[in-house]
Structures are given as structure tokens and as C-alpha cells.
Amino acid sequence: MTMKDFIEQEKRRLQEALHWFNSRGSRMTVRESGDVFLNTLVDGYTVTRIAPHFDAAGNHLRTDFWLLWKALGYDEGFQHAHTIKVVDVRVEDTLTAEYDGKEIEAWLIVDMTDDLGRVHHVEMIEPVSEPELAADWQRWIAYRQKNAERFRRIDDQLLAEHLRIAEDWS
Amino acid sequence: MKGYSLVHDLTNGESMTGFIDSIMENNGAMVSTVEKMRMGVAPGGMSPVADMQTGGASYFFTRIKKQPASDASPALYFKKQMLRRMDAISYDHDAYGKVIDDYVQRNRGASIDDWKRFSQRHGNETIFKYSVTLLDNIEFIVSRSENERREIIQSFTRRGIKKLPDGRKVEDIVHTPQSWSKRKQ
Questions:
Q1: How do beta strands B131-133 and A60-71 pair?
Q2: Disulfide check for A19: which of A71, A106, B2, B10 has CB 3.0–4.6 Å away?
Q3: What is the DSSP string of A101-130?
Q4: Cα(A7)–Cα(A23) distance, integer angstroms
Q5: If contacts are CB pairs under 8 Å, which of residues 46-65 in chain B contact chain A?
Q6: Which of A26, A31, A36, A79 to probe the B interface (max B CBs under 10 A)?
Q7: Domain that includes residue B104, residue range
Q8: Alpha-carbon distances of A31 from A42, A133, B53, rounded to whole Å
């Protein structure tokens, strides 16, 4: 396997792990030095770049990755879309999902720590125990679908900008 | 800091002309989320809540960027002199607009060297409390096309604005990516 193939496979694996968050919606809290300073619903996550780490023998140890996440209401301004560099992942729970005709274990609850030490705790919205959040999510999805062409333009623009942010990150 | 600007990208999917029109009709200022709510401008879909908790909802967001030699991206380019404002807060990273606790003291850039260094990270963040007036502070507007450029100029002239308060003609500050390299500095 070439390095390019490995990077594509690893990027795909990480993107697949985000399946439930992207298809059912998620809520995120961000804490720094133990204090939660942000609590929001998230539209979706896109892995834009990865940086795999290997030991001296060439064994894959872990993968850092750059993640674009967009809060609900991100069409209100560019400041609601963010790129973080994730340097540590702790998965608390997963659920089997069908993805491209195969079974995968996608994250349900995860802690992602970025290079600034901020811990992004993400949980899939649970419609039974969190009906209000699920209703917000459904309203948002309906709004997006109603304005599909506008969101396609916004998403293309944001992705191009955040790919540049990830690529320029030293 | 010659050749640097504070850039505000439009990501609301609207045309630049529609955006400029709406700014001119709403007291000529770029405003924060909180100011929009105060003015009764409802969000189209959902109101983002994250920046309410960080304090960022009271601020207008920009990024420090070195102006490219050619093909500038469509956006609003504000004058770097705004960095002198007492309420300007610059971070070298995407801080989610955090202005609470001692975050500002610990992370704010305060010198020309800081700001130049911040500009090298595309995710840098410079925020201004409540609002930024367009006519006083705009350096350049880059439109997506020549057609849009003409419409933006008309948006100003329709309101009797042919020159900005700094004396520059409106047609000299509105560009397309292609005409950017011919701009008057």
C-alpha cells in the first residue's frame, strides 16, 4: 500500500467514525482547564487532513487529524465554522452502522482534544431522551433542504476555505 | 504592516450586492449577532448559540490576512488601522470568540509583530465589539464578477455616495479578483 493509499484509507476510516453525528445530529461541549465554555448543536463534521504517526519500525501508532465542524446556524457567518487539529481521541461508546454497503463501528460518544488542550465532547442526539434537541435538529435539516442550492454554495465556499486552513497549519 | 487587511468573508450564500444593500439600509454598519438581534434582524434558519456562551456574539469577526499580489478572494477588506481600536481583540487561532475570564489577557496579540505572525495562520481571529461602520473602515471590496462589481458601485451611488470619507472614489475600492492587481494603494 502506498502512503497516499494509506492516508486516504485512514481519512475515510475517521470520516466513517463520524457517521452517526453527521446523520442524526450531535451536541458538543468544549472545555478548557476543566471549565465548559461552549455548548452547541453541530450540523456536521468533515475530516480535511490527517497526520499519521509511525514508530521507528514503521508501525502506525496514531493519527492526528484536522476536523471542520459547523454549528447549527452556520449560514449566519463564517465564524460559526471551525477547524481544529485533533491530537487525542477517547471513544466512550459506538454503534454499528451500515456505510457504503459495509458494517462499521461509528462513534456515539467521543472526546476529541485539540492542539490547544480544548476537549471537544461530542454525543449523538438521542431522540427518545432528548426530544427537544432532536426537534431542533429536524427543523434545521428541513431548513437546509428547503434552501439546498444556497447551502451547496455556502458549503463549497467553507470547505475550500477550511481545506486551506488545514493545509497551511504547521 | 503595509499590505495587510482585516478580511470578512461572506458565507451567507447571498450575492455581495444584496449584502451591501442590506448594510446600507441598516445604519451602514457590520454588526455582531447580538446587535442583529437588538435590531430585530431574525436569522433565516437557526440562531447560532455557541458564541453567546463565549461572549463572541457581541463581536464582529474578521481575519488578518496579507493581501495577495493578484486574484484576491471575494470578500470585504477592512483597513488594518482598526487594529488600534481599544476593543479589537486578535488571536492567532480560532478561539470561538472567547472573551470570558482571563482568556483575552492570556492570548491577545498586541504588537505589529504579533499581528503579522497571526496572519500566517489562516484560522486567526480578530474581533470588534458590537459593530464596524462600513464607509469609514472599508479598504477594498472584492466582488465575484464584473457584473457584480457594477451593481455594488450602483448600490453606493444610488444613495449619493461617490466618494468615501477618506476621499477615495467608490469605483477605486471595488474590484474583481482579476482587477485586484491594478488597485490603487
A1: unpaired
A2: A106
A3: TEEEEEEEEEEEEETTS-EEEEEE--TTT-
A4: 24
A5: 46-51, 53-54, 56, 61
A6: A79
A7: 4-182
A8: 16, 20, 12
Contact check, Cβ <8 Å, A79/B54: no
Query: What per-residue confidence (pLDDT) applies to A120?
Result: 98
Chain B residue numbers touching A84 (CB-CB < 8 A): 94
Scanning every residue of chain A, which has its alpha carbon at the shortest distance from the alpha carbon of B62? A79
With contact defined as beta carbons under 8 Å apart, do A7 and A52 qualify? yes
Boundaries of every domain in chain A:
3-168
B71-119 pLDDT, tens per residue? 999 999 999 999 999 999 999 999 999 998 899 999 999 999 999 999 9
The CA-CA-CA angle for residues B176, B177, B179, to 5°, reads 65
Tracing cell 486551506 back to the chain, one arrives at: A164
Partner residues linked to A73 by β-bridges: none
Residue A100 amino acid letter:
D
Backbone angles phi, psi at A116, to 5 degrees: -100, 5
What is the Cβ-side half-sphere exposure of residue A69, based on CA atoms within 13 angstroms?
A: 27
In chain B, how many domains are there?
Answer: 1
- ipTM for this model: 0.89
What's the gap in Å between the CA of B167 and the closest CA on chain A? 30
Residue-wise pLDDT tens digits, B46-82 = 777 766 778 888 999 999 999 999 999 999 999 999 9
pTM: 0.93
Task: Give the residue on B whose Cα is nearest the Cα of A161.
Answer: B122
Q: Which long-range contacts (CB under 8 A, 24 or more apart) does A134-141 make?
A: A134/A25, A136/A41, A136/A72, A136/B46, A137/A24, A137/A25, A137/A41, A137/A72, A139/B46, A140/A25, A140/A41, A140/A43, A140/A72, A140/A73, A140/B45, A140/B46, A141/A25
